[in-house]
Amino acid sequence: MLIIDSKDCENIDKALKKYKKKFEKARILLQLRSRQSFTKPSIRRRNQVLKAVYKQQMANGKFED
Length: 65
Known about the structure:
This protein is mostly helical. It has one domain. It is 66% helix and 0% strand. The protein is built from 3 helices and no strands. The longest helix has 20 residues, at 41-60. The chain is elongated, with a radius of gyration of 20 Å. Keywords: Ribonucleoprotein, Ribosomal protein. GO terms for molecular function: structural constituent of ribosome.
């Protein structure tokens, strides 16, 4: 749960802006999207390995389209 401390003299726009920043940093939307469907741990691990291989190839300049 996100709590925003706002002062009495603070504008509602500023408080909303603070809330949006805090919402992005908490990565709540990503958690909700990932919980919509279940992915097996083996598939999750395979995706991590494939992403790491891709990043390594890009770093080495060996990736060709």
